[in-house]
């Protein structure tokens, strides 16, 4: 292994050789990237189910995945399979014989209302007796185990491992909105430790249901600006009022730089560093001084062997909630100082919404494309800047820019904070 194959700590340099994306903007890398840099929105009025009585009636749901998209688990799998197979093919590998481990970020899974009602009176159970444990027992014993399988978080990774031909026990994790970035970190660490020369990391989330909308509404987390769905997600704007729940999947094929070069693979970008810190202040709110966010950002930059001056663009978590956007700006200002005003920072969520478990993976894929193409996606709907947040948010229109390193932030409920630093592929 040559010196150029290792980083400043002597660890293998991590190359990204394949990408896959599904979001409300469409299916596939090309369709998503073209729509994103054009400033198009995938947010729309929900027609998957009745929204009567709900405060929020809009989302970035993915409604084009066919029969598999009829349940949350089925949709999460279908999107992950689409993004994963696309990434493997882009990497020039067989999408049914990948030959490396799978690290999957997937949403927490439980029985949906339709299935609870379906099981309600099976085997003599009455409504009063059919508590959640009882329903699971009935589903487990029933000859048709399809409903029970939908309650297993590992089900998606098991199906993916079979479909994509991965090796070893597939890992499933769920760390709220940081999950996609955390999955990438696990893949990076496995390669750095020498356990594998390649890994596929996928984040997926197809969990928009009436129940999930109600839960986030009870947290006062969702936007209620239903009249113009495409204008509702407005990160860092003064009139932001909540995030837009969305669905999607992002996949990255990671390889050691040495292995990728040896097989003549196209390298689209690099994963330079990963940082994570926990915040135990509150279930949904950040610590007021922003110290865990600050520490996660610093850890990612330091792991990359860089300083804040080495970051050319920030792909923000940027959810469009009053609390998150303010705290993210506060954390970034503490790290970057006055230089933050000159560093472009934009939010993909202004167009695709908040894809929850998948967000970190999708946004990492978009960051790699920004590095490769030299284009910064915009933050759309930015017409009323928040005077308390002075940032260059690449407002409303994409911008050409030669960049060498991107910081991609993912801050989740439950105090999960993960930051990735991604770099441009070495020029041939």
Summarize the structure in words.
- This protein has 428 residues and is α/β, with parallel strands linked by helices.
- It has 13 helices and 15 strands.
- The protein has helices at residues 29-37, 72-90, 113-119, 132-141, 146-149, 154-164, 179-192, 210-218, 257-262, 291-303, 322-336, 349-352, 359-373, and strands at residues 14-23, 26-27, 44-45, 58-59, 102-105, 171-173, 198-205, 248-256, 269-278, 313-315, 345-346, 375-376, 399-400, 405-412, 416-423.
- Strands 1, 2, 5, 6, 7, 8, 9, 10, 11, 14 and 15 form an 11-stranded mixed β-sheet that branches. It has a two-stranded antiparallel ribbon with strand order 3-4.
- Strand 1 and strand 2 form a beta hairpin.
- Helix 2 (72-90) runs parallel beside helix 6 (154-164), helix 7 (179-192) packs across helix 13 (359-373) and helix 10 (291-303) packs across helix 11.
- The protein is globular.
- The two termini are 18 Å apart.
Number of strands: 15
- Output the helix-strand order: EEHEEHEHHHHEHEHEHEHEHEHHEEEE
**Structural class based on helices, strands and sheet pairing:** alpha/beta
- Whole-number tally of structural domains: 2
What is the fold-level CATH name, i.e. the topology of the largest domain? Peroxisomal Thiolase, Chain A, domain 1
Helix-residue proportion: 25-40%
Q: How much of the polypeptide forms β-strand, as a percent range?
A: 15-25%
What is the global morphology? globular
Question: Which superfamily, in CATH terms, is the homologous superfamily of the largest domain?
Answer: Thiolase/Chalcone synthase
Number of helices: 13
- Low-confidence runs of at least 5 consecutive residues: none
- Separation, N- and C-terminal Cα atoms: 18 Å
Supply the CATH architecture of the largest domain: 3-Layer(aba) Sandwich
What is the arithmetic mean of pLDDT? 91
Q: What is the CA-atom radius of gyration, in angstroms?
A: 21 Å
CATH uppermost class of the largest domain: Alpha Beta
- What does the main sheet amount to? 11 strands, mixed
GO molecular function, one term: 3-oxoacyl-[acyl-carrier-protein] synthase activity
Domain Ketosynthase family 3 (KS3): 11-424
Pfam family, one: ketoacyl-synt
Protein name: Beta-ketoacyl-ACP synthase
């Amino acid at each position: 292994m040559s010196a150029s194959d290792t980083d400043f700590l002597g660890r293998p340099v991590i190359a990204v050789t394949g990408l896959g994306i599904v979001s409300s903007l469409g299916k596939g890398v090309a369709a998503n990237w073209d729509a994103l840099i054009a400033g198009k929105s995938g947010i729309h009025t929900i027609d998957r189910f009745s929204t009567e009585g709900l405060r929020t009636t809009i989302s970035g749901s993915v409604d084009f995945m066919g029969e598999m998209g009829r349940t949350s688990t089925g949709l999460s799998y279908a999107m992950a399979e689409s993004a994963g197979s696309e990434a493997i093919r882009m990497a020039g590998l067989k999408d049914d014989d990948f030959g490396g481990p799978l690290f999957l970020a997937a949403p927490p899974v439980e029985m949906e209302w339709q299935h609870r009602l379906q099981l309600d009176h099976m085997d003599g159970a009455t409504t009063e007796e059919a508590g959640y444990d009882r329903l699971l027992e009935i589903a487990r014993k029933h000859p048709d185990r399809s409903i029970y399988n939908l309650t297993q978080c590992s089900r998606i990774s098991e199906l993916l491992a079979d479909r994509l031909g991965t090796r070893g026990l597939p890992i499933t994790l769920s760390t709220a909105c940081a999950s996609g970035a955390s999955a990438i970190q696990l893949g990076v660490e496995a390669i750095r430790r020498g356990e594998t020369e390649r890994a596929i990391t996928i984040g997926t989330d197809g969990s928009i249901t009436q129940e999930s909308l109600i839960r986030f509404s009870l947290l006062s987390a969702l936007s209620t600006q239903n009249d113009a769905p495409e204008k509702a997600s407005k990160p860092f704007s003064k009139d932001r009022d909540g995030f837009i729940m969305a669905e999607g999947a992002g996949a990255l094929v990671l390889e050691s730089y040495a292995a990728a070069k040896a097989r003549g693979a196209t390298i689209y970008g690099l994963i330079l560093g990963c940082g994570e810190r926990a915040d135990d202040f509150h279930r949904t709110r950040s610590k007021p001084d922003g110290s865990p966010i600050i520490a996660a950002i610093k850890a990612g930059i330091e792991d990359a062997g860089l300083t804040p001056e080495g970051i050319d663009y920030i792909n923000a978590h940027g959810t469009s909630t009053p609390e998150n956007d303010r705290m993210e700006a506060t954390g970034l200002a503490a790290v970057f100082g006055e230089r933050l005003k000159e560093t472009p920072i934009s939010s993909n969520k202004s167009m695709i919404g908040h894809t929850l478990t998948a967000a970190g993976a999708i946004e990492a894929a978009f960051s790699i494309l920004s590095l490769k193409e030299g284009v910064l996606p915009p933050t759309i709907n930015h017409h009323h800047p928040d005077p308390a947040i002075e940032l260059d948010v690449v407002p409303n229109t994409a911008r050409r820019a030669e960049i060498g390193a991107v910081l991609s932030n993912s801050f989740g409920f439950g105090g999960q904070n993960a930051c990735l630093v991604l770099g441009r592929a070495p020029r041939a």
